[in-house]
Amino acid sequence: MDLLYKPDFEEARTHWEAFWNHEIINRPCLAVTAPKEGHEIPPGPPYMAGWDGNFAEAITRWEARASHLYFAGDAIPYIELSFGPDQFGAFLGADLERSEAAYNATSWAVPFVENWEEVLPLRLDPENPWWKKMLEFMRVAGDASEGKFLVGMLDMHSNVDALASIRDPQDLCTDLLDVPEQVHRAIESVQELYPVIYNALYEAGNMDGRGTIGWCSFYSPKRFAMTQCDFAIMLSPSMFDEFILPVLTAECDFLDHSIYHYDGPGALVHLDSVLSIESLDGIQWVPGAGNPPPSQWPELLLRIQQAGKSLHIRASSAEIKHLHSILKPELVFYETSARNEKEADALIQWFVDHT
Asked: Which residues does residue 314 pair with via DSSP β-bridges, in sequence order?
């Protein structure tokens, strides 16, 4: 299968298949993007483009940018659709509001749960306006992408993060102590809806047969998604194991491949529990603002690999070259950028020569 913006897509697929099998062809899995020779890259669509229903404009702007990019190595061109981090909560019935900031715009759910007993079990209403809009956006993008690029799976923010979006997070914290049985029922509802939502998005985005790609550039020929639970930083290890670990495990069991978005040192107290999920493939370590970049956490990165999990490292070419001397090449996906096509090709060749 060829893609207009990735003529060597089939070759990249072989490297990705090797990555998921913990194997090496001739180098680690490596995605490099660069401007095409003589091209200046225009800005793409802003985050949450399509919010107003103008799907065609968002796709056109994305293609205008992609046509000037060189997708080298295992970089796969894909469009990322999003109504913001709380969109899963919106699918459950919350309304969304957004900031009007020109930069770093975001959105948030308006919590609607005051009493769990009044809303359980949680349901997915086929007429939910946010759900209908996202499905249509996926269909439009899926049709437009045929033969040219892929459509990314949503940044889900499911499981307990979704509950925190429909019930004020502070109230959810007290619920864990005051009405734990109700929270467990709410988690079960979200767990049951996850495959329903995923499969509908998978079909609408024309992913069957082409594969899935997540918001941090991971590609899989099968069903893939990023998993995470930012709410976990609020919990003790015992509460994490009781309330979050089972639903995370269920998500990973449902998916063919999964990577956990690990956000911030404060959540590292749960690392052993996360690593215990047998069906989880790997970790994307994001240290958070004010902390050293991922490349400066060698002990943590080695600990993750020693547990048999893969890593995602987004860093400069110099940093990933350094890490290549430390990390197992079959258990890492490097992502970086280059100034031009020649530099991108040279970096890929360096990894071939040094693997």
From this structure: 335
1: pLDDT strictly greater than 80: no
269-323 pLDDT per residue, tens = 999 999 999 999 999 999 988 899 888 999 999 999 999 999 999 999 999 999 9
Helix 169-178, helix 159-166: angle, nearest 10: 110
Give the C-alpha separation, 150 to 132, whole Å. Answer: 21
Do residues 181 and 249 lie in contact, with contact meaning Cβ atoms separated by under 8 Å?
Answer: no
Tens of pLDDT, residue by residue over 266-279, are 999 999 999 999 99
Helices (H) and strands (E) in the chain, counts: 14, 13
Q: Indicate the average pLDDT of the chain.
A: 96
Euclidean distance between CA atoms 348 and 350, whole angstroms: 5
- Tens digit of pLDDT for each residue in 9-27? 999 999 999 999 999 999 9
Cα–Cα distance measured from residue 165 to residue 316, given in angstroms and rounded to the nearest whole number: 34
Helix axes 245-254, 159-166, angle to 10 degrees: 120
**Model pTM above 0.85:** yes
> 197 is written with which tokens?
């939502």
Q: What gap in Å lies between CA 134 and CA 313, rounded to an integer?
A: 30
- The answer to whether 54 touches 124, Cβ cutoff 8 Å, is no
CATH top-level class of 9-353? alpha beta
